[in-house]
Amino acid sequence: MESNANILDLNQLRRSCGSCALHELCLPAGIGRDDLVRLDSAVRDRRALDQGSMLYRDGDGLQALYVVRSGSLKSFVLNEAGEVQILGFHLPGEIVGFDALATDRHVSHAEALEASSICELPYARLQQVAIEVPALHRQLMRVISREMVEEHRHTVMMGRQQAQEQLAIFLKNLTDRYQRYQRLQRDAITLTLPMSRYDIAKYLGLVVETVSRLFSRMKEMGVLEVDRKSVRILRPDLLADLCRSSSVSTSKRRGTG
Amino acid sequence: MESNANILDLNQLRRSCGSCALHELCLPAGIGRDDLVRLDSAVRDRRALDQGSMLYRDGDGLQALYVVRSGSLKSFVLNEAGEVQILGFHLPGEIVGFDALATDRHVSHAEALEASSICELPYARLQQVAIEVPALHRQLMRVISREMVEEHRHTVMMGRQQAQEQLAIFLKNLTDRYQRYQRLQRDAITLTLPMSRYDIAKYLGLVVETVSRLFSRMKEMGVLEVDRKSVRILRPDLLADLCRSSSVSTSKRRGTG
DNA sequence: CGCCCGCTTGAGTTAAGTCAATGACCGTGG
DNA sequence: CCACGGTCATTGACTTAACTCAAGCGGGCG
Fold first, then answer.
1. Strand C lies under 7 A from the Cβ of residue B12
2. How confident is the model over A19-74, as pLDDT tens digits?
3. A135 has a chain B CB within 8 A of its CB
4. Where are the domains of chain A?
5. Of the CATH numbers 2.60.120.10, 3.40.50.150, 1.10.940.10, 1.20.1560.10, which one belongs to the domain with range B2-146?
6. pTM, whole model, 2 decimals?
7. What is the pLDDT of residue B26?
8. Is A169 exposed, middle or buried (0-12, 13-18, 19+ CB in 10 A)?
């Protein structure tokens, strides 16, 4: 019964939600086969973004929500003085653009950190389908809530007194999120950070020098192996410790120099 | 045409969304008369909360969303060490509980800062009505998005290097939100803070001593008049300046001592 | 009336910021 | 192919704003 539908149009299939690798993480999670077809009808198409290109800007009208399919984005705001605050990094399966629902205008910027591809969900159409398909409505609420919980995590991270704890939590969270869709092995993880040190700093409310020093410190402590964008987590257990309190290991700082 | 409906049942009226003073700020905004009746049917009833009582706790199942009708709440999380991070303060017209939509469990606590009253919106019923009433669906999304934008404001505030800027932004935001529903005059504002200095500190990621010192400093600068919970903003213009950059006025610190 | 809790203030410490210089990589063009 | 310039990252020396610890104040409540 399903093979029938699948053979018909390979091209269509490739872009359909039902066959997407992110199926279970994205909007379709928990939506039945028949309704998936309708959801598909709400997906305009895929869009490719080069590194550095903007998906939307502060002030842009609400056109659509966007699912990250591959690559990654950052969302951020600029204040009057041009200072950046990064609001979030967005990985495959995550949805961006919710900030515009309140006022029908975006109030932040979204930019590709690397070559990325995006599913565009025109909002008017999405809303229509959500009304027809209660399961989608529920899932949409679930996804927004997930975003909100992620915001809370960000807040908690920024509230930490010790910058080292902040960075540890950031790295932990990033590995968790990458593992979710890459099915990576649990230990001995190598991350390729799509964002710059500057971005990390502005995400955490720090300056870039502090972030750089913290990477060096964690390297020195044997927690990480760092080579530019590549971060290998040698001791996930120690990293987890650092998430809780840096105080136990600060003595290391002068120990091995 | 409307007087007719209004006289029928004063008791019912008192609790109905159509007659609520927060009408335009809360869920009913933009929903027609007929649909309002349905929304009303989704509101279980009003609940009174004493100061310090919990509306929900981390781990509680999702029962309902809650509208603050009067008074105020704080939402927060505790880490393993028992340290607090305040996620938000919630004033009349604002809705809390969205954190539970993702997993059907709350992942934060909500506590009344003062005697408060709450409209309870059982979620299953709300969802049902949202499916029947597309305008409510849209408004619900709008409200969640508003929460998300508020989270972003919180993030930006916490990202500031200068604690004085953080507190200035906090106070500015609080006056703006109080004005929204109290229709206060624009200048010469007196706030009665429902939260402790400790709460403010934990909201901003600071320690209580720093917050206390900042209040004293702003008092000394002539921006505020502070008497325990009562904060009178003498110079809204200066407060607005402090939101942008403290650097210009830090010299004041030793000037008038 | 007095205790307790929340707030303020002071003195000293420290972690993170600032400023500045150097180093490593990358893409471009000779 | 290599030299060059630019950007990003690292590191060092110094400064400073916020934290810690500690004491004292004051208002509200029993």
1. no
2. 777 787 788 888 888 888 777 777 767 789 999 999 999 999 999 999 998 999 99
3. no
4. 2-146, 159-256
5. 2.60.120.10
6. 0.89
7. 81
8. buried
